[in-house]
Design brief:
The complex is a heterodimer. By secondary structure, chain A is mainly α. Chain A has helices at residues 3-18, 20-40, 47-71, 75-84, 87-116, 124-151, 155-178, 190-217. Chain A has one domain (3-217). Chain A contains eight helices and no strands. In chain A, helix 1 crosses helix 2 (20-40) and helix 1 (3-18) crosses helix 5 (87-116). The longest helix of chain A has 30 residues, at 87-116. The two termini of chain A are 28 Å apart. Chain B has one domain (8-228). Chain B has helices at residues 5-23, 39-66, 69-100, 109-112, 116-136, 141-164, 166-169, 189-192, 195-226. In chain B, helix 2 (39-66) packs across helix 6 (141-164) and helix 5 (116-136) runs antiparallel to helix 6. The radius of gyration of chain B is 19 Å and the shape is globular. The two termini of chain B are 26 Å apart. The chains are: A mainly alpha, B mainly alpha. The A-B interface holds A 141, 144, 148, 151-154, 158, 161-162, 164-166, 168-169, 172-173, 176, 187, 190, 193-194, 197, 200-201, 204-205, 208, 212, 215-216, 218-219 and B 64, 119-120, 123, 126-127, 129-130, 133-134, 137-138, 143, 146-147, 149-151, 153-155, 157-158, 161-162, 165-166, 169-170, 180-181.
Chain lengths: 219, 233
């Protein structure tokens, strides 16, 4: 892998360690959201409700976790990056960083859900795989959305307005796919087909991000 | 006069569509009955909407490659007509579904709006709604043009699978989806349609597409005149 991408990624992770409040802020956000759900629904929620709540929470966590990735960069710092690196390397480092962040947050959400809201899963391992895949897909889309929103002034609200319609198809497929882990019987090959569809969409998003970001980058 | 032949053509075709669409003989199918005539209007709205969005998408690419402000006006003009057609298509579909899908008791319109095809249509409207919200949030014109072009390209590329691929993978009540995961997302015009209906349907598609292009070009011309001072061409 490219050395510059690695050092940009390292910078983001280091920043996260130095300013721990944002990282713990997101974790606290997850914990309190799941806790509110735990208090407000019956003890053993239906598998369908469990599933849909889980993905909606995932979506909001991603908006919160990824949103700040471009907001934190001041104009002067962007100018500095402009002089030392290329836009493609920069967006790759951001995508990687957000993917890692989202994988961690997805795992924490899953853990908290299992802890507080009982375990309706038939196949926990399969569901974990789907959750990680879903976390990646959502983080890819929202990384680019946050890059676009950073160019407009009213950031956070715009990310949700732009990103939610775009993520609906993927989210629908993810919700359908995760029903496989709840023991719902699918047609032969359907699980693979759906997984392939999600991965295909991810590849499409990545390709578009690499092609389009250089146009956003110039100011 | 030379340049406006397609406007006259659109007018003639649409008069033919409306007259023949309401007066011609249609096959009498159970449940659907005379509401089958909605085909000449509802389906054509989607055709025209897709055409508008594709043209808008092409102009966004053209903007990014040339940075000519004119292309941005074209892209937004076509997108705004497209979203209008999408709303019309949604409304005509909802009225039709209200009489044909809601045959059982205790079924509300809300329960059928979860149809994969309706979700795709709603996504399309939401995406382009977001496109216009994004346009509204800029003060700098060049920045607005560039960033919204990026969003337009990205959104269109994401819209494509959600309208054309995902509905094929799930069952639906919508005509043209007989099995659980087979069939065309909308309607298989060659095999499902009566020959007489096809004679009205295809001209109708062309007529509505031409009319919407006409509306879009008018909007664009107004915008071009408004921004005359900004266009240094």
């Amino acid at each position: 892998m490219n050395k510059r991408v690695l050092s940009l990624l390292k910078k983001d992770i280091l920043l996260e360690f130095r300013q721990k409040h944002t990282f713990y802020g997101i974790i606290l956000y997850i914990a309190s959201t799941v806790f509110v759900i735990y208090l407000s629904i019956p003890d053993k929620p239906d598998a369908v409700i469990w599933n849909s709540l889980f993905w909606v929470i995932q979506l909001f966590i991603c908006v919160n976790a990824v949103a700040k990735s471009f907001l934190a960069e001041s104009k002067g710092r962007m100018l500095y990056y402009f002089s030392i690196t290329s836009p493609v390397e920069y967006i790759i480092s951001k995508i990687l960083y957000n993917a890692v962040l989202m994988l961690i947050m997805s795992s924490i959400t899953l853990l908290l859900f299992l802890l507080l809201l009982s375990n309706p899963l038939n196949n926990s391992l399969q569901f974990t795989g789907i959750v990680l895949l879903g976390g990646l897909s959502i983080s890819f889309v929202f990384t680019l959305m946050s890059a676009i929103a950073a160019k407009a002034q009213q950031n956070a609200a715009l990310i949700a307005i732009m990103g939610f319609p775009l993520i609906i198809p993927q989210l629908m497929v993810l919700i359908k796919l995760s029903k496989a882990a709840f023991g719902e019987v699918f047609k032969q090959g359907m699980v693979l087909q759906l997984t392939g569809l999600i991965i295909g969409l991810d590849v499409l998003v990545l390709a578009l991000a690499l092609v389009l970001f250089p146009y956003l980058w110039k100011d | 006069m030379k340049k406006s032949w397609w406007k006259i053509l659109s007018f003639v075709i649409l008069v033919y569509t409306v007259v023949a669409g309401f007066l011609s003989k249609v096959p009498d199918l159970p449940i659907i009955h005379q509401s089958i005539r909605n085909l000449y209007f509802h389906v054509c709205m989607w055709f025209a909407m897709m055409v508008m969005f594709i043209i808008s998408f092409i102009y966004s690419i053209k903007y990014l490659s040339s940075s000519k402000y004119k292309n941005d006006i074209y892209a937004s003009g076509y997108a705004s007509v497209g979203i209008y057609l999408g709303l019309l298509g949604y409304i005509t579909g909802a009225i039709w579904a209200n009489y044909t899908w809601l045959t059982d008791q205790n079924q509300s319109l809300g329960s059928i709006l979860k149809e994969p095809k309706l979700i795709g249509a709603a996504i399309a409207i939401l995406i382009y709604g977001a496109y216009f919200v994004l346009r509204g949030s800029f003060t700098d014109i060049d920045k607005k043009a560039r960033v919204t072009a990026v969003y337009n390209i990205f959104a269109f590329a994401m819209l494509f699978p959600s309208i054309w691929i995902i509905p094929r993978m799930v069952g639906s009540l919508h005509p043209g989806a007989p099995g659980s995961d087979s069939g065309n997302p909308a309607l298989n015009a060659q095999n499902d349609l009566d020959a007489g209906m096809r004679m009205i349907f295809w001209p109708a598609v062309i007529g509505w597409c031409l009319l919407s292009t006409w509306i879009a070009t008018l909007r664009i011309r107004i915008q071009l005149l408004k921004d005359k001072t900004l266009l240094n061409e």
